[in-house]
């Protein structure tokens, strides 16, 4: 069972593509050393605006932190192999 629906996956892929073009946003995420740094970065903010249905669920605040961790890791990924 996956908590990430197909629509969310498409949104995450689109955000990742945009992140590659917006080098400043990507750099802000890559320079982050704590989860708080990630949460305050411009790159994460752009992801939040596109994915409220993924993280804005009552009594599941952990999703916000999980999304921040995904953003931090994704900033270090150059390309996504979609063959899988």
Automatic annotation (TrEMBL):
InterPro entries for the chain: CRISPR-assoc_prot_Cse2, Cse2_sf
Q: Which domain of life is it from?
A: Bacteria
Could you tell me which NCBIfam families the record lists for this protein? casB_cse2
Its protein name is: Type I-E CRISPR-associated protein Cse2/CasB
List the source organism: Escherichia coli
